Amino acid sequence: MAARMLSSLVPSPSTDFSTPTKNKPSRQNTRVLSTGSVSSATEPSTSTAITRTAVSLEYASLRHSGHCPLGMYVTPSPDNLMVWDAVFFVHQGYYTDSILKFRLTFPPDYPEHPPVVQFLTDVFHPLISQQDGTFNLAPRFRPWRPKEHHVFDVLHWIKAAFKKHALDEVKEADCFNREAYRLYHDTTSSFAALATQSSMLSQSESALFDKDHPSMAGKGSHSMQFKELKPDQLEALRRKLGLQDWEDVLEKGS
């Protein structure tokens, strides 16, 4: 089976702002991510120059250390600055090894109101609607303060929401998926099994490579696409990026 890898070299205008871990590739990083597809969305005329400037500055700020969470890759849509596509590689917790595509859509009056976060990958999570993938920002931003809160705060909340301490603190009234909430508190083992199932499905070839996957229905195309690599292509890319084989890393660490 052809190997896959996530490249940290994303073509312009995409940039991965995560801080790389030197010579320690993640097990998830076996897929190449590209921005070959183009979103069909067009930039709404209602978004003002001030709003577009604010969104542009938010994207530029992700270059600052610690602003973009490790494991997240973000890019504005080629056709619409007000829509950002992203991929989140989950490294620990109930959702370990999940590969989750999501989208941020900015309102015309941003930053007065927060962006809408929607997961395109199906995921069983208390804060994520099973109907349309909408993610609830309210537990962290109540209320949203335009002069205080930024997109990097939103990204860090998304990442934190998949960790145990956040799941412990979520209130049922804030949950878009109350079944997930109840299972988490009443039958944790069942919740863990469904979270693991979500993780496995998110890694499947159909979820990663099929643009017509059922989970994408009604959500539009995602501008970050995965590409399979043959073993020789993977090895060449590893050398180019200076990455070691995972087994070699384990041997040196033992």
Automatic annotation (TrEMBL):
Keywords of this entry: Ubl conjugation pathway
Chain positions covered by the region annotation Disordered: 1-47
Biased composition (Polar residues): 9-47
Membrane-spanning residues: none
Keyword Transmembrane carried by entry: no
Residue span, UBC core domain: 50-204
CDD domains in alphabetical order: UEV_AKTIP (cd23814)
SMART domains per UniProt: UBCc
Entry keyword Cytoplasm: no
PANTHER family membership: UBIQUITIN-CONJUGATING ENZYME E2
The name this protein goes by in its record: UBC-like protein
